[in-house]
Amino acid sequence: MSAPLRATFFALLAVAITAMQNCTIRLAADDGVPSFEIVLFRNVFGLLSVAAIVLWVEHGIPRSRFAGLIGLSCVVHVLSMLTGYYGVAVLPLNESAALGFAMPLFATIGAALFLGETVRARRWSAVAAGFVGVLIILRPGVVPVELGAAMVLVSTMLGAAITLLFKHFAGGERATTLILYQSAFSSLFSIPPAAFVWVTPDAYQMLVMAANGILGTLGWIAFLRACALADASALMPYEFARLPFIAVFAYLLFGETPDEWVWLGAAVIFGSTLYIAHREAAVAREAARRALKAGDPA
């Protein structure tokens, strides 16, 4: 297959794996495992799976130049997982997936406020439109806003912060090394919250949580492979496929069906994030052209 077709395959594979991973969260939660404990086992099994891959590929544990920064960022990462897993455990899967599309909106705001990036009027308009999509899904004042929905939005904000932190120092580190150290620190930091709600899992629950951790690692690998074959902005449209995948799995496993407000709000959110990605790609191309022109001796 050509590179674009392979990128499409891996992008859709990553989205499908993420949808399956969300289902394992619900399966474990519905069987009585606290969401904080699911986070711990997701990180532990994710660490074991990525360590096996790293040892196989690199024949040893690589050193990281940013171990301290990764450790600090993982405090935020674990908080994002704790809030996000709680939301997935208690909300309809379609709704939590749709709200998760808001992460690039928060990342754009954070980049402007904390990284000093220039965000012009058109991108701010896209951010505003995205939040209209969030309001369409939540419909505050029409239906009560659930705690789970609030937790998913908190998770997306924290996830956006993690994206910005990794963007700040990930240029000089291999992706597998970052994932390995992130998994190690996240496993460590997940222990205290899980200890407060500990329920000893049975064989079935352990199997479901092992699947959750392994799927998380496989999803990351598929996503990184897609990124190696195509620009991130070109991959953005495939993210919306997560909602149809989730809709199918949620219906088959839990009998859930998304209402029209979820689809409409998700479309508005995704349209705004797609525009933001398009603008970022256009700005990057323009900067590259200027740099090339500046270095041209002619």
Topology (SSEs and partners):
Elements lengths: L2 H28 L4 H24 L8 H24 L2 H8 L2 H12 L6 H18 L8 H23 L5 H22 L6 H27 L2 H8 L2 H13 L5 H35 L4
Helix pairs in contact: 1-3, 1-9, 1-11, 2-3, 2-8, 2-9, 3-7, 3-8, 4-7, 4-11, 4-12, 5-6, 5-7, 6-12, 10-12
Fold and architecture overview:
By secondary structure, this protein is mainly α. The chain has one domain. The protein is built from twelve helices and no strands. It is globular and about 65 Å long. The termini are far apart.
For the structure shown, list the relevant keywords.
single chain, 81% helix, mainly alpha
The percentage of residues in β strands lies in: under 5%
User: Oligomerization state of this entry?
Assistant: single chain
E-strand count: 0
Question: What gross morphology would you assign?
Answer: globular
Number of domains: 1
Radius of gyration: 19 Å
- N-C termini distance: 40 Å
Please trace the helix and strand order, writing H or E for each element.
Answer: HHHHHHHHHHHH
Segments where pLDDT lies below 50 for 5+ residues?
Answer: none
Q: What is the tally of helical segments? A: 12
Give a nutshell description of this structure.
The chain has one domain.
